[in-house]
Amino acid sequence: MSRVAATAAADARRAAGRGQAGMTLIEVLVASAILAVMLSLAWTTTSRTSDVKRTYEAVEERAQEMRVGLARVVDDLEHAYLSKNEDTGAFDRRTMFTGKDGGNVDELRFTSLCHQVLWSEANESDQTMISYFAGPDRDDRNKVDWLRREQRRLTDAGESYKSMSAETDVVLRDIEQVDFAYWDWKDNEWKSDWDSTKQDAQKDRLPTRVKITVKWREAGQVVEMSTQARLLLQEPLESRFGTEYERAQ
């Protein structure tokens, strides 16, 4: 009987050991599953935070690009000027301010005193003609860039601004729309067009302010940014001895 009792006790201990080992394996599996879930949540949170950071940085970089581009346009406009020291009856005036409303990107051409001469004895002047217009992107023809053309000097008699040496560069890339509005202090209203060369328009006058509005697409939505430039030289420049053409007559 003692041998039978001893065998039964040994079987009972082995069964208990197997049951204890089984419970330990289940606990390990449960702990592993919990750890996997926690690691997955941590990775998802980190990944989403990184994506949001990259998106926010891209939006801020794009907005900064717009601010810098608009600041350049404002600086050009604040140096705009007109002059009567030329043949004021000429068809193609040397100094002018003409803005045309049309299409998604308005066109603007004006004379300014903002050109920087970079070397001595160059056939250049601080007086320049600047044009703003739209053009296709060089890398993607489906995108539209906002371009700036700056001449090295003003035209001489008989010359056309289109044949003058000039540099064209990109002000803003991939834009949707550019609108100019000109404040007419005489009519006390904003106007979408301006022409200082025509008698029936704004002859020999500059707008006191110019509002520039740029729209671009960001994450499928159209974003807008606007600023204004205050034109400082309101009176056309004129020599008290008369123009060169008046003295020649």
Describe the protein's topology:
Elements: H1 2-78, E1 97-100, E2 107-112, E3 128-136, E4 144-151, E5 166-172, E6 177-184, E7 189-191, E8 194-195, E9 209-218, E10 221-230, H2 244-248
Antiparallel strand pairs: 1-2, 1-8, 2-3, 3-4, 4-5, 6-7, 6-9, 9-10
Give an overview in words.
This protein is α+β, with helices and mostly antiparallel strands and 249 residues long. The chain has one domain. The protein has two helices and ten strands, in the order H-E-E-E-E-E-E-E-E-E-E-H. The strands form two sheets. The protein has a six-stranded antiparallel β-sheet with strand order 5-4-3-2-1-8, covered by helices on one side. A hairpin with a 6-residue loop joins strand 1 and strand 2. The protein is elongated and about 130 Å long.
Percent in strands: 25-35%
Task: Describe the main β-sheet briefly.
Answer: 6 strands, antiparallel
Number of continuous helical runs:
2
- Summarize the amount of helix as a percent range: 25-40%
Computed Rg: 36 Å
SSE topology string: HEEEEEEEEEEH
Number of domains: 1
Which structural class matches the secondary elements? alpha+beta
User: Could you give the count of β-strands?
Assistant: 10
What would the principal axes of the Cα set say about the shape? elongated
**Unreliably modeled segments:** none
Strand order of the largest sheet: 5-4-3-2-1-8
Quick check: average pLDDT?
A: 83
Name the assembly state: single chain
For the termini, the CA-CA separation is: 148 Å
